[in-house]
Amino acid sequence: MNLDDGLKKLAERRARALEMGGPDRLARQRALGKLNVRERVGLLMDAGSFSEYGQLTSHVSEGAQQTHEVTPSDGVVSGIGRIDGRFAAVVAEDFTVKGGSHGVINARKKLHMVQMARRERVPLVWLLDGAGARGQELMNDGLPDVTHFLEIARLSGIAPQCSVVLGPCAGDAALVGAATEFIVMRAGTGMMAAGGPPVVKAATGMDVTKEELGGSEIHAKQSGIVDRVAQTDEEAIELTRRFLSYLPTNAWAYPPATQARDAEAVDMDAIIPKEPRRPFDVKKVIRGIVDADSFFELKPDHARMLVTGLARIDGHPVGIVANQPMVYAGAITAAAARKGRRFIDLCSAYHIPLVFLQDVPGVMTGPAAEKEGTLREGLAVVYALAWADVPKVTVVLRKAFGFGACAMGGWGGEQSLVVAWPTADFASLPVSGGVAAAFKDEIQRADDPAAKQREIEARFKDGTDPFNAAARFTVHDVITPGETRNRIRHALEFSRSRRTQAPSPTMRYGVMP
């Protein structure tokens, strides 16, 4: 083939790839308020930075050469570009080409990009809008190939991975999404399920809608798989770019600092109610500690008794783990424990310091809690803390009881700082519960059992206050609420010189899905 013929054919093939699934299918996407795959990649990557890999691919055929049908880029756009100036890889499924389904060449491109991200140690973003396996290519392919799932697992903790669920994702697309470290789903169009409604109907006889099966209400509130929900493609992609802004390019680098800002003007001394059982919103405390407008909450609608999120203090990224007294008094449930463990793993993998804000009555108890495996899930948080080799700060705001306090960064967790507010209350059990158990017979024999219990409780009241803890050196200091940001800032500043090591092949931090 001479050069002129080759250039002509190249131009034709490139033009066909850019047509994607054709005008009719593109129009259907637009009618749903969805961007096309190349528009999505253009929004994700910095302008002019994207270099595509495999643009001229098409699906396999029985003959030696595919001629009767072209599948542009075989339904997936992949390549390397920059996000806020830093290199990142992308895999973007194109629903207009065979429903973005997972075929032989499609899968080969995806695997190659995961392997490239792992070799070059760059973040990988999945823009998911795919219908799972392409049956006509894979039904007779023998034992299903697990390679790309293994590679995704190997990349975990090496470089950040994000999934943006923009359409109805079933099978492989849903599994990939669930395996990554940050997942955002678009409400209304996004779905994640092992099998779509037709598969569910064939397997179980049940008729379900996509939303009932695996929509944002299911995965953001109940399963906890989704970290954030967006209303549009543009918002979903912007949330992903913001998440990545807190994380380093890989585990051999440190989180990028930005311009320091003051905290929001919050009257910290007025946050804790005078009545000890009255709840308050811990997010007010967070806003008074971190740089203004820097708090990026993860899983805000799931296990709401625990608040987790990324933020900045003096421009440096930190991870916040806080009990929420507005929900179950801040008690740790099985779901909250899973949420906390996964977040601690994320911060540990990428050298992000952790700040714990305690107001916890303990681990949830009762028959329902035991059936949910709360004991084991709660212990898993401590396992995560044991391997979290990052600077840690603990602030006890009010309650700090039992194993719940241990799981929330209790004393002995190698913290750079442990402080308590004057409102703090410490014990293995709340005084009322501890007295009721330890002095049961004495209380029952009394003429006035209620008065007797109050009398005994009064004996122990001072022993659980923060000044007793400070005297015993199980906190470093008692501070005023208004001092909190400065004390945390000071502790994180001096601990910044003690950076964690990059992972080795034999021991590294992974982020469990």
Q: Which helices and strands occur, and which strands form pairs?
A:
Blueprint: H1 3-18, H2 23-31, H3 37-44, E1 51-53, E2 76-83, E3 86-93, H4 104-120, E4 124-128, H5 135-138, H6 147-155, E5 161-165, E6 168-170, H7 172-179, E7 182-186, E8 191-193, H8 197-204, H9 210-214, H10 216-222, E9 228-230, H11 233-245, H12 282-289, E10 296-298, E11 306-313, E12 316-323, H13 334-349, E13 354-360, H14 367-371, H15 374-386, E14 392-401, H16 402-407, E15 417-420, E16 425-427, H17 431-438, H18 440-445, H19 449-460, H20 466-471, E17 477-478, H21 484-495
Helix pairs in contact: 4-6, 13-15, 17-19
Description:
The chain is α/β, with parallel strands linked by helices and 513 residues long. The protein has three domains: 3-245, 2-enoyl-CoA Hydratase, Chain A, domain 1, CATH 3.90.226.10; 268-424 and 465-495, 2-enoyl-CoA Hydratase, Chain A, domain 1; 430-463, no CATH class. Helices cover 38% and strands 17% of the residues. The chain has 21 helices and 17 strands. The strands form three sheets. Strands 10, 11, 12, 13, 14, 15, 16 and 17 form an eight-stranded mixed beta sheet that branches. A seven-stranded mixed beta sheet has the order 1-2-3-4-5-7-9, sandwiched between helices. Helix 4 runs parallel beside helix 6 (147-155), helix 13 packs parallel to helix 15 and helix 17 packs across helix 19 (449-460). The longest helix has 17 residues, at 104-120. The protein is elongated and about 100 Å long.
